[in-house]
Amino acid sequence: MSGFEVYPAIDVRDGRVVRLKQGDYAQETRYADQPLEVASRYAAAGARWLHLVDLDAARDGGYSIAALLSGIKSKTALKVQTGGGVRSKDDLLRLFDAGADRVVVGSLAVREPSTVAGWIERYGSERITVALDTREVEGEWRLPTAGWTRSDGTSLSFLLALYLGTGLRHLLCTDIGRDGMLGGPNIALYREIMQLAPRVALQASGGVRDLADIEAAREAGCAGAVLGKALLEGRFRLEDAVARADAIAC
After folding, report:
1. Active site residue 11
2. Is-catalytic flag, 133?
3. What is this enzyme's EC (predicted)?
4. Model's pTM, two decimal places?
5. 178: which of 9, 190, 208, 244 is 20 to 30 A away, CA to CA?
6. Which among 11, 56, 91, 175 is annotated as catalytic?
7. What is the mean pLDDT of residues 95-115?
8. Are 125 and 166 spatial neighbours (Cβ–Cβ below 8 Å)?
9. What's the CA gap between 84 and 103, in Å, rounded?
10. What is the rounded CA–CA span in Å between residue 95 and residue 111?
11. Sign of the CA dihedral 142, 148, 152, 158?
């Protein structure tokens, strides 16, 4: 895998930039800047991609930030992968129409893998990112849905095996227990996934705290890393993360 990409993230709830701890809606940190301002700052810092999440829709359905997505696309050169509340083909097409370069599908990818596999076949593997976000339960990686608030017991290994025959290209995996905690990404988990799916472009998400974590994700075989709380809190500069990603991709 030759390239490596950093994806600065903006999570939006009630129109504001927020971060949750371990996906818990009751543990929210709000930031002062408006989402479009943050996106513009990331673009100026050299980002090529943005990871944009509608947290309200992730839990309740109904993507609600299409206007923000359109604004980001019109005012910056960022490519955007975005999701939250994608429950139907109409939702998917609405995001494409608003300017999404890739649509992130999470809960539906767990509940209806055949539907999402059909979208990958119809719209192309570069237009869909499957999010298999996971939480360790009694020694096994399980896949919660509905903004990580519900669990149907589906295992990560089982569902990943189903997707390997679908043409899946882009896979995002968050270790929920590390999300928003600044404790470092779960490199062991990502090594395990890459052993199962070596041709998938895996995005590491959850816990990235410094530039060394970005290098560790690449060394584990990941094709990218999502950068959230550490950027918002100034733990490192995005310019340096982009430069480091470009250097380790060479």
Report:
1. yes
2. yes
3. 5.3.1.16
4. 0.93
5. 244
6. 11
7. 96
8. no
9. 9
10. 20
11. negative
